[in-house]
Amino acid sequence: MKAAVLSVLMVLALIGLAAAADPPRPKISEDFQATGQATLKIGDQDHLGVGAWAQNSKAKMAREVFEFNTGSSHLDYSTLWRYDIHRLYNITTRPVNKCDVKTENGQFPEAWSWVEKANYDGRRMVNKIECFFWQAKVGPFLFTLAVRATNNEPIAFSSKSSQEYLQINFESWRSSAPSSSFFEVPSFCPK
Predict the structure, then answer these.
(1) How buried is 161 (Cβ within 10 angstroms: 0-12 exposed, 13-18 middle, 19+ buried)?
(2) What global pTM score does this model have?
(3) Of 4, 19, 91, 186, whose CB is crowded by the most CB atoms within 10 A?
(4) Which helix (H) or strand (E) holds 5?
(5) Bridge partner residues of 74 (DSSP)
(6) Nearest-CA neighbor of 53 among 39, 76, 33?
(7) CA distance readout (Å), 62 to 25, 90, 109
(8) In this structure, are residues 93 and 75 in contact, taking their beta carbons and an 8 Å threshold?
(9) How far, CA to CA in Å, does 122 sit from each of 1, 47, 125?
(10) pLDDT of 102-161, one tens digit each?
């Protein structure tokens, strides 16, 4: 009888240890396209918006495009990384078209490379989806990624610094690069 009770206790202890272990680290494709809702907090001001984020790692191109509305004010901006031509474009289209360009000769900044060093931060719900959370401090930023517990699909991403907080709740996710037209430089940008 004692042996049976000890065996049951050992099995329960092993099950408890397995349940407490960190889940497998997600491997997020560096070629992706996503859309979602975003919250940008700068100081005391919250900006709610929608947008898209995509990357073609092989071609060394990435782009974020977001439209934020706060009451009567609007902010539409895009960041376009074109490391294939050594350029970084910061673009606004509302209220007026504006494009700042910088020369970039460094290494292409892959979106998810930080996940390899991230710490598991627990299991929580995001929009009624059970998620695993991964977090890492990268320079002045604290990055957090929530992935679906069943298949590691990205559900939400946030970036926090002393200056601002950005959270994106993904509505769609595809692990493939979009058409090259998504990365075209707008005609009003300097070449």
Answers:
(1) exposed
(2) 0.84
(3) 91
(4) helix 2-20
(5) 69
(6) 33
(7) 24, 12, 9
(8) no
(9) 38, 28, 10
(10) 999 999 999 999 999 999 999 999 999 999 999 999 999 999 999 999 999 999 999 999
